[in-house]
Amino acid sequence: MPRPASVHRKSWPGAPAGFFEVEAAGLRWLAEAEGGATTVAVLDVAVDHIDLAPLVPGRATPETAEALGRGLARTHAAGAAAFGAPPPGWSGDAWIGRQPQRNEPTPTWGAFYAEQRVRPFVRRAVDAGHLDRAGALVVEAVCDRIAAGTFDDDRPPARLHGDLWSGNVVFTDAGAVIIDPAAHGGHGLTDLAMLALFGCPERDRVEAAYAETAALDRTWRSLIGLHQLHPLATHAASHGPAYAAELVTVAARYR
């Protein structure tokens, strides 16, 4: 029976087991946050596809951008069981795009971020020939500092989207809707860092509304590069030396 035209289907024949199931679990978990960012509705999920409510793109406005910032802060504030915790009801592999990554609960943000989000992709980038050993050593040295807790703070684990680049924010006439998460427990600045790295319409408005709602202190912007190491490392592994060079440049700020 053909599916209704009111359904948006994403499919991947031969998708690894759990690929779409963890996406569905992440979307549902994000959607549970009271007053949080609007999340696309999951209609059905199977091994090789996920069916989502269709979205009609519209224009970003200052008002919808500010609503996104406030909603994202509330989604983060809804929390997670631990840094690295997967969406409830899910265990096993996770992905960012089509690259696998781990979601293992960890007591501190720094240990989680260094060991599960940055180092694995640095090593893949080296293995792919995209990142030379000298550059890798720069990033590894920063990972040592991160893992040791140098950049940890007293914020509890946030309920993260985890892959919040501009393509995963759909502005509609009814407001912004987030899609395609790599949801897990992490640090809220990681989602802001992804938006800053790849751009977002009315980003200044998103950030200002988020910072006010989340009560960020004045130093938060100085840490954005730290939280960009993960997406830069993933792109260095999959997209080549240009991202590897940017990864090293950004990492060098935090040595």
Summarize the structure.
The protein has 255 residues and is an alpha+beta fold. The chain has helices at 19-31, 62-77, 109-127, 133-147, 189-198, 203-214, 224-227, 229-239, 241-252, and strands at 8-11, 42-46, 49-52, 94-96, 99-101, 158-160, 169-172, 175-178, 184-186.
What is the top-level CATH class?
A: Alpha Beta
Structural class: alpha+beta
Average pLDDT works out at: 96
Span of the ends, CA to CA: 58 Å
* CATH H level, superfamily name: Aminoglycoside phosphotransferase (APH), C-terminal lobe
Helix count, per DSSP? 9
Strand order, sheet with most strands: 1-3-2
Describe the structure.
With 255 residues, the protein is of the alpha+beta class. The protein has one domain (56-252): Aminoglycoside phosphotransferase (APH), C-terminal lobe (Aminoglycoside 3'-phosphotransferase, Chain: A, domain 2, Alpha-Beta Complex), CATH 3.90.1200. Helices cover 44% and strands 13% of the residues. It is built from 9 helices and 9 strands. Strand 7 (169-172) and strand 8 (175-178) form a beta hairpin. It is globular, with a radius of gyration of 18 Å. The relative contact order is 0.17.
